[in-house]
Design goal:
369 residues; alpha/beta; 7 helices; globular
């Protein structure tokens, strides 16, 4: 293959679309590999109560709008169906389910992509694996002693399973607040715990603000640090639903606990109110929901030694600084639906130049010999 695309979420499908537009044919010049069982990227795994109307800023894939969607349907169904129609409309021929285990340097300027359906030798790689497969679970003393249930956003089933229970939600991002507001409607008691004080965003959030937020994430990637989510620099939007939840005390946040006990969580020192001294505190719980985010799913790239001392992969545009044949889309600053679209286009533009250069080298080789 000339190009192997790993992942068929928003970024991977965008890249495949632009490869098609550049004149490359699927299964002849490029291949898209996806380990998920069906179309939809990470969206297919989202909880049923996350309806399409609750999705913030879903940007259409290039060349085909998403129209007429029922806002009351689960986003997994709406977006999964949209991705399936997109793959068919542009004949992208995604291979699934295919697991990619490793990417290594091969001979003749090619990369070897080792997969569950064999090894591909490719001139360029577009990695679009996202983060869903690497949920981040923080570790706290006593975690293994907790007698209740612990689950991560990646396995969140919706609020119905928490009826009548005491639930602690850990995490200050969009998922944490969404879980909390849903669960509070059915639970006996909810507690919200975050490492940092939440930052609420008021007023409009336009294109200029979006570019500024993405630039902050991009700066970390340029320095070779692990990317942060865009929401970590934009703050949380103050919607009507959020305002109502704050008025009801649902979004009254507590600082991070120090340990987990068999029956809940505990703080060694907790600020007292009205001038009272610090003291210990405990909260009993039946469930702990870890809405603590995800990390980039890039372990299969380890043989290429792309990581910088800071722990991340340094990129220029979408290209890995340590390897000119590797592009990362949907990574860091392009980890949004509109960012993924743009990254797919940029990666293909750069790869076309690489393929043209390789072609020139092959054309000149016989004459030079």
């Amino acid at each position: 293959m000339d190009v192997v695309v790993i992942g068929a979420g928003q970024a991977g499908l965008s890249a495949a679309y632009h490869l098609r537009r550049a004149g490359l044919e699927p299964d002849r010049d490029f291949v898209v590999l996806d380990h998920a069982p069906r179309p939809g990227g990470a969206w297919q795994f989202r909880w049923p109560s996350l309806t399409y109307g609750k999705v913030h800023g879903m940007h259409a894939l290039p060349g085909m709008e998403l129209t007429g969607a029922d806002e009351g349907r689960p986003s997994s169904e709406v977006i999964g169906g949209y991705f399936a129609r997109y793959e068919e409309a542009f004949d992208l021929r995604v291979h699934r389910p295919v697991d990619v285990t490793a990417v290594r340097d091969g001979s003749g300027g090619r990369l070897l992509v080792e997969t569950s359906e064999g090894t591909y030798a490719t001139r360029a790689l577009i990695n679009a694996t996202g983060t869903w497969d690497r949920p981040f679970w923080p570790r706290y003393p006593g975690q293994e002693t907790f007698r209740g249930r612990q689950l991560h956003t990646a396995g969140y089933p919706g609020p119905q399973e928490f009826a009548g229970q005491r639930v602690i939600v850990v995490g200050g991002g969009a998922s944490g607040t969404q879980h909390l507001m849903e669960i509070a409607e059915v639970a006996a008691e909810t507690t919200w715990v975050t490492r940092r004080e939440p930052v609420w965003r008021e007023g409009p959030f336009g294109e200029a603000e979006g570019r500024a937020a993405v630039a902050l994430v991009e700066e970390r990637v340029r320095r070779g640090l692990p990317p942060q989510s865009v929401v970590s620099v934009t703050g949380l939007p103050l919607t009507d639903a959020v305002e109502r939840a704050r008025e009801r005390g649902i979004l009254d946040r507590l600082p991070m606990f120090d340990q987990i006990t068999p029956t809940g969580v505990a703080w060694d020192r907790f600020p007292g109110g009205d001038g009272e001294p610090e003291r210990g505190r405990t909260v009993d719980a039946d469930v702990i929901v870890w809405a603590t985010g995800f990390r980039a799913a890039i372990d299969h790239l380890a043989p290429l030694r792309l990581r910088e001392p800071g722990g991340g992969i340094r990129v220029e545009g979408t290209r890995a600084v340590r390897h000119e044949r590797v592009h990362l889309v949907g990574y860091g600053p392009s980890a949004s639906t509109i960012g993924a679209n743009r990254a797919g286009r940029a990666a293909v533009r750069d790869i076309r130049r690489l393929l043209d250069r390789d072609g020139d080298r092959r054309d000149r080789a016989p004459a030079a010999a």
